[in-house]
Amino acid sequence: MPETYQRADLTVDQQHALLTAARNLGERFAGTFSTETIERFLHTSYDQFAEKAAIPAFLPLLAERFARQRLTALARVEGADDGRPIVLFLCVHNAGRSQMAMGFFQHLAADHAVAWSGGSEFASEINSAAVASMAERGIDISAEFPKPWTEEIIRAADVVVTMGCGDACPVYPGKRYLDWELDDPAGKSTEDVRPIRDEIERRVRALLAELKVPVA
Q1: What CA–CA distance (Å, rounded) separates 176 from 130?
Q2: What is the pLDDT of residue 8?
Q3: Phosphotyrosine protein phosphatase I domain spans which residues (predicted)?
Q4: Which helix (H) or strand (E) holds 23?
């Protein structure tokens, strides 16, 4: 592992932060992926967020979190299956609907299943009204962040739930898809988001029952 990353587009602090992230991921995926694979996923994840980051100082952390998810997905694709179903929620901005769906899924399923989310044109930050409406239900999604999807994430998912991304949503043969028609919470008040939130909860509960996932 190098002592720093020599990239002209990074500050010294960002280089050191990415080095720390690479070490963290190296420990997590030791024996599963090579250092080269881990660094490639980390750097491509960083580049995906670089143009939209509201706070550049958070970029290495976002890159590490997304690279961790992508590497977990790749391991699943390559045969490291722990038996838990994975559901991927996709919408346009990954700032409202898909984040609320993932929040409900994770809260209800606990460790019995896995939920991921992504957007076709992912936003720079999560919808504040979505955060507030979920907080009313005791679910904190404020630490989540909009993100794109990648091939390995889609391939690893057992079910892909789309919400308004239309033709922009990826289609893989043999993959199970569900399309949920839901209003977009973008620009809406917390009061107006509540009915959307409640409908998402209803659908998530129905999906968990169909997947035979115990609900907390």
Answers
A1: 27
A2: 63
A3: 85-210
A4: helix 12-28
Position with higher pLDDT, 150 vs 170: 150
Q: How far apart are CA 177 and CA 161, in angstroms?
A: 6
Active site residue 152: no
pLDDT at 215 exceeding the cut of 60: yes
Pick the CATH number of 12-77 from 1.10.10.10, 3.40.50.1000, 1.10.8.1060, 1.10.3300.10: 1.10.8.1060
**Pick from 107, 113, 189, 103: nearest CA to 142:** 103
Active site residue 120: no
pLDDT digits (tens, 9 = 90+) for 43-80: 999 999 988 766 677 889 999 999 999 999 999 999 99
Going from N- to C-terminal start, the domains of the chain cover 12-77, 86-210
Question: Of the residues 62, 91, 102, 129, which is catalytic?
Answer: 91
State the fold for domain 86-210.
Rossmann fold (3.40.50)
Residue scoring higher pLDDT (139 or 167) = 139
Catalytic (active site) residue 169: yes
- CA distances for 211 relative to 116, 130, 206, 208, angstroms: 16, 26, 9, 5
Catalytic residue among 169, 182, 193, 204: 169
pLDDT at 99: 98
